[in-house]
Input
Amino acid sequence: MKHHTRTAVSAIFPIVFACALFLIVGSLWGQSASSDSKSAQKVSASSIQVEPMDAGDVPIPPEFRIAIYENLITQIEKTGKFQHVYRSGDKDAASAPDLVTLRTTAQSFTKGSQKKREVTTVSGSTSLTLKVHITDHAGQTIVDRDVQGKVRFMGENLRATYDFSKKVAKIIRDTF
Amino acid sequence: MSIQKPIFNVCVTTNSFLGTGTGMCVRGLFLLAVVAALMFSPLRARGQAAGTSPVAPSVAQTDVKLVIGGDKVKNYSVGTLSIVGSSLQFATSKTKAEVEASSILDISTNEDSRQNIAGAAHLATMAIPYGGGRVLALFSHKVDVLTVEFKDAGGGYHGTIFVLAQGQAAPFKKQLIALGAKASVPLAEPAPTNK
Output
């Protein structure tokens, strides 16, 4: 019986070892390939202009529109990827040579309740989904993605806009 | 003192040119006094207005929270919101922000609710055993949210959110519209009372 076990272990061990080695090599190769593709996809731009959110038909309260805009400006400035972060309508933006433009369009909005969230912990979450569209000077699309902002447990409803802008800042870090 | 010199000179000149005696001198002095009074009175009035009494705010509210969008003022600062002259002003103990009414693109008011316990105390309530913190979360109060969208000197778009005590946002909106601010949603008329 013991002899059989030893034989089985000796037969299985090389297979397991080979599989583990294959997985390690595969993951390392994948990582390097993805980092290569990421660096290859990076776009260079010295300045960005942020346009106010287009609410479309989605009924978003004005305080959410403003909080989205101001949080976006703050978070994009924090990335340090651009020399200038221009606000919409800024006259100086016209002279920027490689300006990219960020536009956001509302897709959905659910206003929750801070009271509900903190009492029940399962309901009352605030969420908003916006289409994030970044174009270059020639109008070519650089980024076109739906991004969601949420506040589930703690904090005011407006915190969803902070969550959203943090995610947009991450996209910008990955793209530029 | 400075007025006395020209009076003396005029008197001398009238005497030297016309030579009619003291009557003419008195008349000349009288005329000069009237002219001097007319010349200096508006200047003095203007000086008084500019120097001593600053323009009193027409609408003012203390304990207003600036949630976001104060350029130099930190987010969640508490201060005094007022309309001084033709501009909206938010002042804390350290800094001050000002927006000219004519540069306001849109102004709106909204109702919301805020919890009575906020900030660090709110975190502390989470430590209360047997869900005590959740019970405290039930206590909240209604507030007014005032949002102001405006453009700066360079044409850049800005937005600011203020949280005020309930019923305090409407007077600001009304006053700012009167001063030239734009509003996409007009100020709601008070409902007619049926007696």
